[in-house]
Structures are given as C-alpha cells and as structure tokens.
Amino acid sequence: MPALVLLGAQWGDEGKGKATDLLGGSVDYVVRYQGGNNAGHTVVVGDQKYALHLLPSGILSPGCTPVIGNGVVVDPSVLLSELSGLNERGVDTSKLLISGNAHIITPYNVTVDKVSERFLGKRKIGTTGRGIGPTYADKINRVGIRVQDLYDESILTQKVEAALDAKNQILTKLYNRRAIAAEQVVEELLGYADKLAPYVADTVLVLNEALEQDKVVLFEGGQGTLLDIDHGTYPFVTSSNPTAGGACTGAGVGPTKISRVIGILKAYTTRVGAGPFPTELFDEDGEALRRIGGERGVTTGRDRRCGWFDAVIARYATRVNGLTDFFLTKLDVLTGWEQIPVCVAYEIDGRRVEELPYSQSDFHHAKPVYEMLPGWSEDISKAKSFSDLPKNAQAYVKALEEMSGAPISAIGVGPGRDETIEINSFL
Ligand code: GDP
Ligand code: IMO
Ligand code: MG
C-alpha cells in the first residue's frame, strides 16, 4: 500500500515537478489533488524542458498513469492545449484520467478573478489570474460546474444560469463590466465534452483499487504549505489545501493509506505574489539568488521574490503535514557565497520566537534571526552521493535537517533528472 504525498514546504516553486518526475519512473499513478493551472512545474529530461500547469508531472514517465483528482479545478481549454502541446513533442498522454467530480474553471470565473484583483487595488493578492479562487468559491457555494455536468446539457444549462444570475449582477453593478450570456458559456463548455470524454473516470475507485493491489501511488501537490487556505499566510494564499490532508480529500483516499509525506524544500526561499516573507532580500544577494536560481515564474513570468532559508517555516511544514522526509532542492544555487545566513527564529516586538506565530499581525512584524553558516565554492552539480559534497555543503544540509525536523532524503544539485543525490530511498 505505498502511497506517497509530495508537496511544497514553502510558498511554491520548490521544485515539485522535478521531484515528481524523478519518482515517476517507479510509480504506477501520479495524482494532482488540488489547485489548477495556477501551478507551473518545470521538468527537465535530457535536453528537453517541459512546463506543466495542470497535468501531473508523471505524464512524462511512460509507465505511469497521470490522474487529475476531484479536488483539482480544471480549465478545459488549458488542459486540451497542454495535451496537444505534449502530443506534438511525442509524449503519449492517452493514459490520463480525470475525475468526473473535478470542478471546471469557467470563463466567468477567470473574469471575476481578474476584475476582483483590479478592484482590490493596492490590497490585491497577486493571483495568477487563472480563475482559481472564484472557481473554488463557486464549489463551496454549491454553484460550481463539474466535469460530469458536460455530459448533461440540461443540467449544465441550469447550473450555468444559476451561477451567472448573481455574478452578472456583481459584474455589471459593482465592477462595471458587461454581463456574460449563459448560452455562450454553455456552448463553449459543450464543445469540450467529446474531447475530454475518453479521460473521464471514477478516479476514487481507480485509486483505491490500485492501492489494494499494492500499486504505488504518488500524490503531487501544487503550490505549497504557506499558500494553503487554512495553514498558509491567509489571505495571501491560494484557495485550496496543498498540505498533506488535501491529498485525502482531493483524491478520495483515506489518511490510513498514506505511507510517506515528502516535503520539497528549496535551499533558500522564494515567493510570488503579495504577502509577508520575513527573509526576503532587497539587495544584491536577492538579485543573485534570482539570477543564479532562474527565479522567474513559469505561469505568469513574474520575478520571484527571493530570500534566505527560513527554518521556522520548514519546522512548521513538518508539523502541519506530518512530513516523513524532505527533498532539498537547488543546493547548487548557493555555491559561491562565503557565508550563508539561515533564519533560525524570529524577533517579534523584541521577543525571540521559535515557531511560526498564528497571529497574522505578529507574522507581518517578524524579523529574521540569522545564524551564519560557512559557504563553499566548489561546483557541486556533478555530485552523486552525499560524500561528494564539499564539507561545508554537507554541514549546511545537516544544519537544515536538524532545524527542520525531518530527514533530508534527497538533494537537488541541478534541474536535470539525474542531478540528484539520493540519500534514503523513497520507495
Ligand atoms: P514547482 O512549481 O515546485 O514544480 O517548481 P518550478 O518548476 O516552478 O520551479 C523550480 C525550478 O527550479 C525549475 O526551473 C526547475 O527546473 C529548477 N530546479 C529544480 N530542482 C533544481 C535543483 O536542484 N537545482 C537547480 N539549479 N534547479 C532546480
Ligand atoms: P506551483 O505549483 C508559486 C500564488 C500566487 C498568489 C497566490 C494566489 O508552481 O508551486 P491563485 O492564482 O492561486 O489564486 O494565487 O498564490 N501561487 C503560486 N506561487 N507557485 C505556485 O504554484 C502558485 N500558485 C499560486 O502568486 O500569490
Ligand atoms: Mg512552480
């Protein structure tokens, strides 16, 4: 019953795509359980680079069945273009399964996302503008459209009309926008029905049967722990649960089935969009991390905000996810610094605080308390085992492990599949 969850331990973009792809060759199913095409996962295979948004990163491993679970929000036009883009590059996508219970991002959800951000002005979240929040809001308000609705025109029409009743009032009267015609939306959505039909399945049944047959299932999180709607830096978060519990609700698998929870942890920290970020750098070190780490968003092309490693956040991720392992990524990016600051605690209004404060105002005032660790200058991108790393790099990893509360079982030393040091096997 090997069921693994792989998720972001920080604010997203930790290298989840690469980590999932690395394991993809040895697992039977890779399942996205939340989020949608707000995710941007870069996977490098040989000299080929793939940017995936909605499809699970397991799609690039021929033996693996990729699954879009019930907890995901699906933009059908994005999904179809992602599929055809991969097909053109010779990737077989025919095994894909999509839950009939997954919710659809409709064109009006995208519109509402964009106009409401504009309306917020300076207080905006900095969303990806992909309609994620409004689609989850419709789901919780029980006016959402599900994949299965595409196969019953009458129900689809009723649901779109019901959803648009209130939305058109808001669009026209509050946001000063034109109303959206239900017939047009229905027509567009019906146009996707046949194209998606071969993939639609009862994924809950498929996955539970697979686990009963001892198949290996990997649940791939989008975003990260600090972007979680419940456990993240609310309101500067996404609208789903990337944390480990989300894998259960978002895929229909009970918590007793999960055997391992792997947190993907960057050797420093990045964040896209608005919200607090205690170790953020505004100097040349931040610029250097951005340049060397290639820290530019895969989805929106925005520069990522960069800062030093934050052990308080890593400890928090261990706790709220019940992490069994860390996969430390991008250690190679830190090569060349004489000394590397690591945030070990915060100072909040003159007090030293070791754990993430639950109060939003406290977190906004948190100043990092740094410990300096000695750096290294040797190229580490060819390292194959822990002992190949320079002594100071080994000490950096060990210090992070001690502060973060779970063993570091793999280390990324470059973007490629094979640029990874495996310490403990995940399977
Ligand atoms: P995700 O959203 O968590 O999948 O991460 P992204 O793909 O958005 O961003 C991670 C970036 O780092 C991608 O460009 C990866 O190719 C790259 N990457 C992943 N692991 C490593 C690593 O160990 N070293 C380096 N240099 N790059 C890495
Ligand atoms: P991956 O899977 C980094 C951020 C957005 C914004 C907030 C809300 O590549 O790690 P949303 O569009 O989800 O309502 O935006 O969340 N965000 C991400 N940041 N990586 C991601 O995904 C993200 N997905 C959303 O920038 O601050
Ligand atoms: Mg990303």
UniProtKB/TrEMBL annotation:
Pathway: Purine metabolism; AMP biosynthesis via de novo pathway; AMP from IMP: step 1/2. IMP binds at D13, E14, G15, K16, N38, A39, G40, H41, T128, R142, Q223, T238, R302. GTP binds at residues 12-18, 40-42, 304, 330-332, 412-414. It catalyses: IMP + L-aspartate + GTP = N(6)-(1,2-dicarboxyethyl)-AMP + GDP + phosphate + 2 H(+). Its EC number is 6.3.4.4. It is found in: Cytoplasm. The active site is at D13 (proton acceptor), H41 (proton donor), K139. The keyword Ribonucleoprotein does not apply. Homodimer. This is Adenylosuccinate synthetase. The gene is purA.
